[in-house]
Amino acid sequence: xxxxxxxxxxxxxxxxxxxxxxxxxxYTVAAQAQAAQPPQSGEPAPPTLPKITPEMIDQAAALAGIxxxxxxKAAMLAGLNQQRDAYAEIRKLHIPNSVAPAFVxxxxxxxxxxxxxxxxxxxxxxxxxxxxxxxxxxxxFASAMELSDLLRRRKISATNLTQMYIARLRRYDPLLxxxxxxxxxxxxxQAREADAxxxxxxxxxxxxxxxxxxxxxxxxxxxxxxxxxxxxxxxxIDDDATVVKRLDAAGAILIAKLTLGALAMGDKWFGGRTRxxxxxxxxxxxxxxxxxxxxxAGCVAFSIxxxxxxxxxxxxxxxxxxxxxxxxxxxxxxxxxxxxWTMDKLGPICRAVEDCAAVLDVIHGPDGEDASVRDAAFNWxxxxxxxxxxxGYLKASFDADQPPPPEKPAPAQETAEQKKHRExxxxxxxxxxxxxxxxxxxxxxxxxxxxxxxxNLVPLDLPELPFGxxxxxxxxxxxxxxxxxxxxGRDKLLTEQSPEDWPNDFRVSRFYxxxxxxxxxxxxxxxxxxxxxxxxxxxxxxxxxxxDQLVVTNLTGHPAIIVPNGLRxxxxxxxxxxxxxxxxxxxxxxxxxxxxxLGGHYHDAKLCAFARAYQQATGFEKLHPKLxx
Length: 629
Fold this sequence. Notes:
The protein has an 11-stranded mixed β-sheet with strand order 1-3-2-8-10-9-14-15-13-11-12, sandwiched between helices. A two-stranded antiparallel sheet has the order 4-5. It has a two-stranded antiparallel sheet with strand order 6-7. The protein has helices at residues 5-14, 24-31, 54-64, 70-91, 144-152, 158-176, 184-199, 242-249, 289-296, 313-319, 353-363, 395-398, 416-452, 467-470, 472-481, 483-488, 502-509, 514-537, 549-556, 604-618, and strands spanning 179-182, 211-215, 253-258, 268-269, 272-273, 275-276, 279-283, 302-307, 322-325, 345-350, 391-394, 457-460, 540-543, 560-567, 592-599. The chain is α/β, with parallel strands linked by helices and 629 residues long. It contains 20 helices and 15 strands.
């Protein structure tokens, strides 16, 4: 399964997982009876909808996959018309994206407990030989912890470091298209303050003086917050997101608001497509496109991204960086664009695992606003003896793919165009299988490396549940979060308009019944219990990044850390001529691969400690792209 959410949603649709859509159905069936045009200016008048008829009930019932006897339809009409009329009353409220529903998703199974006892974090010791180079830019790819040590010892200044990274942002943005707004004035003021603090002997922690970049779905007062989307280019929000406030308090320096695919899908935004520093002909994947690309290119010390279904995992893989998707409910999302209230998570994208731990230590914990956040401890210990941890691996994710079933014979009357299309499809499928099999060598080498480290790997299987059928929960919530785009016609302002893009997804989700939404959430409760049982057996699970675990763990709220796992060689299958954004594993010589580690709920510190041990043993995080001077 490809990691890109756009492709995943397309796949689920092609396999018939949209069969449950229904009751906004009646509203939409009626609306389609009107000649609707996008608004030209001002506030559009609500459409005058016809009364619901028995024929409309038949149409909506067909979409819902149910049958309603003729004698029951008449009894339904009054209630259905009243229910539809009530939609308009809610819409008059013009509820902003920042207002969450009156329910809170809890990823914990019954009886689970959370450790709330906080301990002082234990960081690794910086190399005693670390010194400032003559050319500060030689530190562009240093880890956050290495930079932190130099800043603390006053070998470099926050002001000079900030100026260096801002210069790199400006130099490489024309190539990689990862920046939306450089927050230079704010950054230089913060840098001077950080230097003054250090001069007074006051250090706020390991992030003090480190320049960072924010995915531009995080609100920053005084600057646009564009969500990467056409129609929102000049949107401003008069407050800072909680994570921004916390990083400010820790002395970190915000230098840029970085790109995301429009409304957090893919790597295309209103200014173009963000690029992969290892191969700028490819996109960076998304939707945390800018954070991953800028971090990989050595243009920030670290960044903050978000994930709903692959948006940290996918670009971290493509760009060869380390991404941490925390447990759902660990980091407050206040001031961040809402896409799916029960699946959105904010997390760091860095060059090394310990950098991610340092960032999570600052940004986690309740803020009194995001009701989903628990008072759980993150007790980072870089010196944790990882031999005390029980490690499992998802065996099926490392197995070779089953050979495809034989294709049906070509029709006798096949046209030249049909033949061309069939052969092209076969070529694409064969190329995809070749890339998958090539990348599998890196997965198997990772298992061998772990065993050589003395790790006893326990084989495990994912629960057998219809996870794909739960995926429409995401688009239903997203359609509610951006209801006004659909109802006003402003969805036409979004750049991407294919059947797999948000405008169409939002329209399709109008047909998702409330009953089926609740049923899918009940199935999700079963999934949480089943997945949590695996973590009764082990502390950490090793998984192929490009596998079903991505969907499963985003639904169940379990944390994941994605780490670089080497570079494809010159013998790698060639990538497609054009990166369509539909497949994260397009590969090609000299591009990165990744490995994923999964953890139990709120055991993110153990998860990071084990991932750090793997990085210490492999050193893949030290690889970086070679960019033009």
